[in-house]
Amino acid sequence: MPELDIQVSVEDAGWPDEPVLEAVSARILGMAASYLAENEEQPFPEHPVEVSLLFTGDEDIRTINAEWRQQDKPTNVLSFPAAPLAPGDMPGPMLGDIVIARETVEREAEALEKTFDEHLAHLLVHGFLHLFGYDHMIAEEAEKMEGLETRILASLGLSDPYAGQGPV
């Protein structure tokens, strides 16, 4: 089983306490890492792989999104790989950073008629896959990434986040 060293920072008062987010993240990302290693022939190093998670709010993620993606608006999740990877490449000791905005997660969960926790799980998996080089900018890549997300979430007992929707 791949080992993950997950660093959690909470910068928005509306999030659950840090130990709760650490436990949730470890379970979800641990399952995602195991699924990739076992089913996608994704190589993992012998040493723990580090992932940094920032749980923040719309204002902060809007600033980050504007600076790094030139999109001056909040978004649900941003991923910043430590090094460029293509799916199937061996990751280094530091995978990268995932940033998630609470208010956007809440709004989207309500609009999708999902619980906050279900949507958060989806966004953690989505952000994690980006760190491994998966993307959804073209239809073929989106299909592969969304299929992985769906299978990983199913292994966690969660429903298909894309049921009845087109690709991201």
UniProtKB/TrEMBL annotation:
* Main location (coarse class): cytoplasm
Q: Name one GO cellular component term.
A: cytoplasm
Which GO molecular function, any one, fits this protein according to its record?
zinc ion binding
What sort of enzyme, by top EC class, is this? hydrolase
Q: Which cofactor does it need?
A: Zn(2+)
Keywords from the UniProt entry: Cytoplasm, Endonuclease, Hydrolase, Metal-binding, Nuclease, Ribosome biogenesis, rRNA processing, Zinc
Q: Which InterPro entries match?
A: MetalPrtase_cat_dom_sf_prd, YbeY, YbeY_CS
Q: How is the cofactor bound?
A: Binds 1 zinc ion.
User: This chain belongs to which protein, by name?
Assistant: Endoribonuclease YbeY
Q: Which source organism?
A: Ectorhizobium quercum
